[in-house]
Amino acid sequence: MKKTNLAQLKWEHWKSPKGRFQQAYKNISGAIGDVRNGWPKKGHPFNLELVRVPPGKSACPFHSHSAQWEMFVIISGTGTVRAGKERHKVKAGDALMHPPGEAHELINTGRKPLLFYIIADNPLIDTYHYPDSKKWGIRQPRTIFRLTEVDYFDGEE
């Protein structure tokens, strides 16, 4: 058994060059053996993070996965989820699931930080699509491209 304590994990910070996308997160599954891109040889095939998004910011760009499922459990704050062509308000206590193929983005539309857990199954093979910027990505090796490889935030801000 592997064990960790959330209070002992440090917040890691991530943001886009112009700051539209921003979050702090605690990599819970990493602390108990998630070896990114190492599964199935070592580690485990899912990830769990505690994520905090500042008011007015988005956790990440609007995207979909070809194989990965993502589940969000809202702990505190309020936000809006873009799911395909729809928008849904979310608040503490809400849980939502994005299946493969459904484009999604979580935006903090409240006045306080939006805090949530994200659980993903990290399939071995996955591609992702960014409809707003017309980009694609491949999980392994991590590559973002249009007709040629581009930077992750290209066309997002």
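Next protein, fold it too.
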Amino acid sequence: MDASQTPPELTDRKNAIRTAMRARLSALTPAQRSAGSAAACARLVTCEAFARATTVMLYMPMRSEVDVISVALEAFRLGKNVCVPRVETGHKSMHAIETSTFDDESMGADELGVRSPTSGAQIPHETIDLVVVPGVAFDARGFRLGRGGGYYDRYLARLRRHTATIGICFDFQFVDLVPTEPTDIAVQSIVSDRRRIETHPSPSTTPPKEST
């Protein structure tokens, strides 16, 4: 569903969560962000999905997000292929661009101002084994609240059924319930600085599995 078609009441609920969560994210000190990011990333690299993956799609972290650069470095060390998003606002689309370095010389900014490789091959979504997904908020079902552009939902909808998707966040970014629309795509698991949750993208009577 396009943002312009979202019912106003649902938009208000989403924006209220975004406002509250952004305030908490902005209040993080650099030391808190660093420690929380390190703990969340340490959990992510122990996931079976990461171990199995040959090609991993990460994201270029903004100041308020979990810094996943350490995951990229571990992927490089293990000989995995790494790619990151580049958006095209005109087509409301997102593509995966291969990268082998995060040096400033190799990075520019995409149309949303997020760091992105200035060159590199576009990686077909069919060849990606794991996508690590950021979010403003998550719930235990695996649904996420993004910034409102819908880029990740549209991209996730195109993936193969067996492509792994892992959300990553600080633990305080969990909420009881993320307001959803039919076009919202749940991730298969979520890692934070305190726990990992295996979610159920489709309705199930089995509760989410949580581990510390």
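About the second fold: Residues 8-26 form the longest helix (19 residues).
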